[in-house]
Each structure stands twice: as structure tokens, then as C-alpha cells.
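lol forgot to send this yesterday, sorry. C-alpha cells for the thing we talked abt
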């Protein structure tokens, strides 16, 4: 962990005792002559906000777009001024209740910087912060040598000192999510997804438990490699995330499969928080960021309307927002009938066999939190799984299928290049 914060926000303060850092109370900033004026709130926006769940936080990855004049800014302002002074006006818009601090990916932010951001937004506002590339990139660029293996990739101590603790202490209750965006991995790691998952788990297990300090803050992991959505790899990924009180960040990015292909991971983690980062329309592909940026220009209108993705994302968000009500009903009902004491959470069934001689079932299960294998016996076994299999979806038999000359696609394994 970071040894001292004496270089931070309060340089003249006496040394603080060792132990968890306490988030400072954000101090309201004095009006600046460079302040950016916010556009007056529209009644239609306020009505829409009233209809949305209070836990739904929508925002962008920055606030320095001059094209938002008339939408967010009351006047014309350049990027530099908006970057330095636009956050206060941005946070006044009824629909913008969150923002992503993507700049933290390129260089770690200090406690003082985080605290400055927190002081500019209301209490309900939440920040999503990306882990520095120094932690999340498997490769680093060395002068004169090109790319080399990053010796501190997913290093727990560095993650705590340079990312987690400064963000917690600086943003306090306004910290919504800490996101570890794992950049595209080199081939020697892509060939061993299990080792990558274990390495992420090792780092996450070392992070401070936020349940008491910041119960609403979420730790999430985002990928840029579709291999982790494959049927053989996402189940161990889910187990690792659950064991470390983390979640999966839904990455709607050209390098990742469409939202439908990532839904099995979200379903396995449900009920729980949803963190989603939606980048570009898929038509721009995995490397179309710069082209899209030029096309979108001032970001003052919708250029590539992706109705399907937006609709799917809205359904996922609605289900997540209502999860607390469903979960509350299940908990109350199971407690009322005494069922809760007999539920074994994070147990995966590996095998089940019936013995006629002993007249019972023998079930082999694996604990998701420890990996321990346990043998259970029962006189009655009920499998409420339906026909769905995460690893291999149900494929019905069609008469004459062998004579069909076209391509047959299973919706559970939809190819990325099939439109």
C-alpha cells in the first residue's frame, strides 16, 4: 500500500496514523471565472429521470465535447476549458449521473486529483475508474526495444497503492466502480486462459474488502479478448469473480462478441450489479476507433444508431434494476419456510448417479469459493435446469438436415461475422 499521502491534497496536515485511509469530505469549489455554464434542466429530462430506477447511473467516458452546446453546456466552450472546468456543469444534467475517468488508464491519478473530482459533483453522482495500464497491460513499450512483457502485470501491491486506495480515499461514497480493463493479451497468454483467470483472482483476492467502507462500490473486470466468453472458460471465470466479490464488466466493443454472446456470464452472476461500457457500433470493427471518431465529429447527434444493442442493453439493465425486489422476495419466502438453512451456494454439480442397492443418489459437487470437491447423498434428486446447457446448447433434430446446403447456426454460438 502507499506509504504516505503527504504529497497529496493536504500537504501541511500532520502525519496520519497507519490503517485504512478515510475518504475526505468533498469541499465545494469556489466559482471560477473560467466556469462552464450548464444548460437549464428540461422538463422532459426530469420526467424521464423520475421514471428511471435510482440505482441506474448513465454517463459518458469524458466531459470535454464542445458539440454538447445547447444540450449540456449553456454556450460555446473549447475542449481545454471543458476538460478543466466542465465537470460541474456535466453533473448538473439530470440524465448524466455518472462518468468514467478513463484518463486514469494512461497515468495513475493521485488522491488529490480524485478528491478534486469528488468535490465537483453532487452526492448521488458516481465515478467509474479504469485501472492504470501499468497494471492492466500484459505488455509494455520499452524505448528502443518495442513491446516487452510487463513484470508488474496484475500486481496486487501496485494495484492497491496506485489505483484502489487513492480512488477510495479521494472519491469516497462517489466511487461507483473500479474497472480492471485487461488489454488485448499476447498469444502466449491467450493460449492459457486458465492461468490468466487465476492471476486475476490472485490480484482481486488481495484487494481490500469494500463491503463495510463502500458497500455500493463495485469491482469489475473487462476483457478485450473473446476467448473468455467461450463456453469452456466463462464458468471458471464466473467462479473466480464470485469468490472475490467482483463482477464482469459487459464490454460492448468491436473486439468482443455481441451482447447476446456475453449474456450467459451475466446470467450466471445474477442477481448482482451490472457494469457496462458501450464503445462503438460494431460495424467499425475491432480497430475502427479513429475512423469512427472522425465520423462522429462533434458528438452532437446519433450517427450510427444501433437499435438492437440498445434494446438488448435496456432489457438487461431493467432486469438488473429489479433484481433486488426479486431477491428480497426469495429471501423472505425461503426464511419463512425454513428453506434458507438448507441452501448450498456456489456449489457446481459435477456428477450424479443412482444406486438401486442403496436406494439413493450420490452427487459430486465442487465448491466455487474453495474448489473443494464434496460428495452428497439424497433419496430424491430434482434437476430444475430445463433443456439449457451453458457449455453446449440444445440442438433439435430436423428431418432432412443432412440435405440442407446452407449454413446452420445455433443462436447460443452466433458467429461474429454473420449479419
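and heres what i got for the seq, position by position
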Amino acid at each position: 500500500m502507499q506509504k504516505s499521502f503527504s504529497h497529496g491534497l493536504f500537504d501541511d496536515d500532520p502525519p496520519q496514523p497507519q490503517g485504512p485511509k478515510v475518504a475526505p469530505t468533498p469541499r465545494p469549489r469556489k466559482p471560477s471565472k473560467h466556469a462552464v455554464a450548464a444548460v437549464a434542466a428540461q422538463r422532459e429530462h426530469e420526467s424521464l429521470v423520475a421514471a428511471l430506477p435510482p440505482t441506474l447511473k448513465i454517463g459518458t467516458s469524458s466531459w470535454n465535447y464542445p458539440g454538447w452546446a445547447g444540450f449540456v453546456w449553456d454556450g460555446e466552450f473549447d475542449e481545454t476549458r471543458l476538460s478543466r472546468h466542465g465537470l460541474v456543469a456535466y453533473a448538473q444534467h439530470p440524465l448524466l449521473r455518472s462518468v468514467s475517468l478513463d484518463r486514469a488508464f494512461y497515468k495513475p491519478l493521485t488522491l488529490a486529483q480524485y478528491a478534486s473530482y469528488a468535490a465537483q459533483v453532487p452526492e448521488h453522482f458516481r465515478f467509474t475508474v479504469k485501472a492504470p495500464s501499468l497494471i492492466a497491460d500484459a505488455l509494455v513499450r520499452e524505448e528502443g526495444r518495442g513491446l516487452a512483457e510487463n513484470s508488474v502485470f496484475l500486481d496486487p501491491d501496485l494495484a492497491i497503492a496506485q489505483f484502489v486506495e487513492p480512488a477510495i480515499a479521494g472519491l469516497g461514497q462517489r466511487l461507483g466502480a473500479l474497472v480492471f480493463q485487461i488489454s488485448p493479451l499476447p498469444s502466449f497468454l491467450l493460449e492459457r486462459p486458465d492461468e490468466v483467470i487465476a492471476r486475476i483472482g490472485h490480484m482481486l483476492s488481495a484487494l481490500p474488502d469494500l463491503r463495510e467502507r463502500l458497500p455500493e462500490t463495485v469491482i469489475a473486470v473487462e476483457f478485450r479478448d473473446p476467448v473468455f466468453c467461450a463456453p469452456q472458460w466463462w464458468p471458471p471465470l464466473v467462479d473466480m469473480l464470485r469468490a472475490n466479490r467482483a463482477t464482469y464488466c459487459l464490454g460492448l466493443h468491436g473486439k468482443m462478441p455481441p451482447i447476446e454472446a456475453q449474456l450467459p456470464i451475466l446470467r450466471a452472476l445474477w442477481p448482482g450489479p451490472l457494469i457496462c461500457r458501450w464503445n462503438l457500433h460494431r460495424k467499425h470493427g475491432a480497430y475502427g476507433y479513429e475512423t469512427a471518431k472522425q465520423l462522429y465529429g462533434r458528438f452532437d447527434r446519433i450517427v450510427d444508431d444501433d437499435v438492437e444493442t440498445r434494446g438488448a442493453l435496456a432489457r438487461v439493465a431493467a432486469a438488473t434494476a429489479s433484481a433486488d425486489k426479486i431477491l428480497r422476495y426469495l429471501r423472505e419466502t425461503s426464511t419463512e419456510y425454513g428453506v434458507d438453512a438448507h441452501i448450498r451456494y456456489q456449489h457446481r454439480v459435477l456428477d450424479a448417479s443412482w444406486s438401486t442397492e442403496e436406494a439413493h443418489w450420490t452427487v459430486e459437487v465442487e465448491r466455487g469459493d474453495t474448489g473443494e470437491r464434496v460428495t452428497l447423498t439424497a433419496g430424491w434428486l430434482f434437476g430444475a435446469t430445463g433443456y439449457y446447457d451453458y457449455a453446449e446448447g440444445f440442438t433439435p433434430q430436423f428431418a432432412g438436415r443432412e440435405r440442407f446446403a446452407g449454413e446452420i447456426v445455433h443462436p447460443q454460438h452466433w458467429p461474429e461475422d454473420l449479419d
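The chain is about 30% helix and 15% strand. anyway ping me if u want another try
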